[in-house]
Amino acid sequence: MDIADNAALVVVDVQKGFEELDFWGSRNNPEADDNIAALIDVWQSTGRPVVYVRHDSRKPGSPLLTGYEGNGFKEYVEQRRGKGTGAELLVTKTVNSAFLGTPDLGAWLRAEGVSQIVVAGIQTNMCVETTARMGGNLGYEVLVAYDATYTFDLEGPFGWRQRADELARASAVSLHGGGFAQVVTTADVVAAAE
Fold this sequence. Notes:
By secondary structure, the chain is α/β, with parallel strands linked by helices. 35% of the residues lie in helices and 21% in strands. It is built from seven helices and eight strands. It has helices at 21-24, 32-45, 75-80, 105-111, 124-137, 164-177, 186-193; strands at 8-12, 50-55, 88-93, 116-122, 141-150, 154-155, 161-162, 182-184. The strands form two sheets. A six-stranded parallel beta sheet has the order 3-2-1-4-5-8, with helices on both faces. β2 (50-55), α3 (75-80) and β3 (88-93) form a beta-alpha-beta unit. The chain is globular, with a radius of gyration of 16 Å.
C-alpha cells in the first residue's frame, strides 16, 4: 500500500460522550483508541495533514450535545491537537458526513492538494462509513483503518438487533466490496506511512 506524502488523516468524532456506555450500549474493538493515537502520532511525525472532526449534536440528552462535556474530544486526542508539523483542520458537523461540516472539508482538501484520505474514528457504521462513502463518491482515494474504529450494538426495524462486531464487519464489507474505500489495518497504514 502507498500512503501519499500529503495524505490526510480524518479523525472522526473521537469524543468523550462515546464513553457513556449507559447511553450507547456495548461496543466492540477496545484497541481502537490506541490505534487512533498511533495514526495521529505517525501523521504528526511525518508532517502530513490531520483533520479532527467533532459531532455537535442538537438532540437533547445526547452525550455529544454542544456545550456538554461529552462533546469534547477524548483526552488523548486533545493532547495531540496542534502538536504536528503538518496542516491541521477542525471540522464541526451536525450530520453523519464530515464532508457536510464547517468549514468545507472538500474545499480544504482540494486547496491542500490532497487526493488520498485515511479515515478512523467513531462509529464504524455511522459517521466513519458515511464520510468514507462520500469521500469515495467525490473521487478521493479513501482508506479506512478498520481497527482504528469502533461502534455499538444497534436495533433496527422489525426488532432486528446486530452486535457491534457484526455491524462493523458489514460496514467494512460494504465499503471495501462496494468500491467506496480500501479497508485496511492500522499496522499496514503505519508501516506504509513511516
